[in-house]
Structures
1.
Amino acid sequence: MAGIILTRSISRSLLPASKHVKTKGLTRQYWTPRRKPLLTGGRTATLLLSLPALSFLGSKTYRRLHVVHALDKAEEDLEQADYLYSCGDTEKLHQLLLPYKDSEDAELLWRLARTSRDLGQLSTVAPGDKKRLAYEAFEYAKRALEKDDACFAAHKWYAVCLSDIGEYEGIKVKIGNSYIIKEHLERAIELNPKDATSFHILGYWCFAFAELPWYQRKVAAMIFASPPTATYEEALEFFLKAEEVDPNFYSMNLLMLGKAYLMLGEKDKAIHWLSKSRDYPAHNEEDREVRKQALDLLKKING
């Protein structure tokens, strides 16, 4: 739908960047056929443009590059923030970044947006807090974008957080926001074509509209003269591009490749990718859910 002073060893952390940015002399290296019945009732169709959880993977080691000068407090906290993100320590990460909520630094703000969103998606968080955190995350992402329009991660997280608040705004607003979401994802890719998760999220966007139920499609047509449209072929192209940029980086991308091929009637290719997502090491709750979906689809295909 992001490492700092990190080696490629944590490249499987989600929503990475591959962009070098100079900050006070320090180089930071930043690592998102309709007749077929097998996918009916899926989360993508029933919750229009609900983006995937984009959970942490962070199972690989964290290694710091050697630097020859001291870091200031903000730089140290940025480094610590990306380490905590790679570990999936959501609550500690949120506590670390919250004091920067009034910051003018886009790099701090988009990370705060990301961790606020992640905190809101924890199963232990009350519904009222989930809503509050969703809107807070959106405001942080919005401010990050205002501070640095050339920051690809700000565009990406603005798109993701805008999709999240659509859950509370009704279908008219949600469909209207979908145009904006797509524009910001495309801008993120333009700014950083090496970010696999931006391609993945855009593929998910296309899949959602390709799979849109008839009643939501009818509502969209009543509200908008030209509602958003997409095809499974387009979705597949983005999922494949994400895999090309960073192979095996995300269990959900493997699953969506399988689903896209299934919807296009390419059974053998669907089985290949569904098997890969089934066999993906389960590091978190999202990976386990992906495995369950893959197993269920494989049973239906082979049944």
Note: The beta strands are 19-23, 26-30.
2.
Amino acid sequence: MQVTLRCQGCEESTQNALAATVGIMKSLIGHFDLDPNRVFDIVLECFELQPDNCVFLDLIPIFPKSHASQILGFKFQYYQRMEVNHHVSLGLYQLTALLVKEDFIDLDSIYPHLLPKDDEAFELYNSFSSKRLDEFFCDMAYRLIKFGKINLAATGKDLMENEKQGDVTIDLFTAIDLESEAVTVRASELENNQTFGLLTGFLSVNDWYHAHILFDRLSPLNPAEHIQICNKLFRYISIRIIS
């Protein structure tokens, strides 16, 4: 059955071919007493490997809608195990996003299966931002002490007369370096944050409606700070401009 599904190309997806494929699948399930959920799992795996094969969009509705969220949820939960050392593939994010876009599943039905939870992610990001801000001000204070001498007894006029160009400076390049370092540190966050991954999935399948929902929901995390998300966003904007 899996070979049949993977060999069934979109160009062969006539109405008769689709009806025949659905009939064969139902016959296999009934004849061999197969677990429908396991069959559905195989269908989703094949769809993940062949996202452009439109035959799957006609196969999925023969299974209960509620089962899709559970099966996908189990897939995401698998990657949350401590012993699993690899991350969720972009294909799974795109598959999930496409099923949401096509209204096979609801966003709110799959979202609870993703990690980290919003409150935990917000708290972690706030701690990260506070630490980054502290490092910036510490660096600026060091440079003020190193390059400038401040006389607390001096008047404003004295400071203007005695100040030499370059005595007290705000190093723009240092600020840029700190920001670049922060982006690098957050790169690993994108790999581990499944909600960000789903956001990239929505942008990949050109679903701005649900992408916008996640942008609003995740706005405290500043998702656009990630280069990968920015690239997907620019790609979507380019497509919209051309179309």
Note: The longest helix spans residues 118-147.
3.
Amino acid sequence: MTPLMRRWLCLLSMSLPVLYWFGYVLSKDDGTPAERKSFVLRGYKRVSPGRMDQLLDMHCSGCALVSSSGHMLGAGAGAEIDQTGCVIRMNTAPTRGFEKDVGRRTSVRVVAHSSVLQLIKKEKLFFQDPTNTTYIFWGPERNMRQDGKGWIFNAILKMAKKYPNVTMYALTKEKVQRCDDVFQNETGKNRLKSGAYLSTGFFTMILAMEMCDSIYVYGMVNDNYCSQANQRSVPYHYYEKSRSNECKMYKFHEHFRHGGHRFITEKAIYARWATRHKIEFKYPSWSP
């Protein structure tokens, strides 16, 4: 064997482990979320007093998306919800006192800029919770800007410093704009020009489709429910029994010219998404 051949054989033997590892990575990262070791979601950046460039890395095979609807009262779905891989809740919806109907666990809590101060008022309840909840905040740029002038973002950052063990993320302005674009693509209407505000549920459903293989939505009615004669009268929020009736709130917002949520329109969008993504609606149960 010549010196040149020996040199090539030596190089080949050193390269085989690297080639084997590279081939293994390619075979694992084949586009199937359940098989990826990393599931980075763009548009969600870590709120931290240190580095602010960390992206959300989260994936769940099954997610329970628990709405704040009064339909959850008496559902008795708590144990079923807690058995799901990840449990997603919104804003300040509590579990304490409602465990039988809505469960105990919270994996992810999506919070609107308008609910941040309410959350902070109960900071011990939420941020000292030992269940290891990830918080995801969204809001307009004027409130969430990170140059010291975003007063809601400043409040969130203060909590991140105070509770360093709590994981917090915020939607980037590009992600918020992307959600506006999704709304326009689905409805043909520009959100700003139509006077609509996207609901926390809209952002939450988009997040769930990005991070979950299967989504089980609890307590959400379809877009025709409130026009039915046999509709069930429930409170807008299960934890605010004395507040407005849910369907009355939906109809008011749907036709409010400036600043209303388009709850009914959004539910029609979710029904279309359910034909392309594995989404199941429970309590009440319905199919698109």
Note: Confidence is low (pLDDT under 50) at residues 7-37.
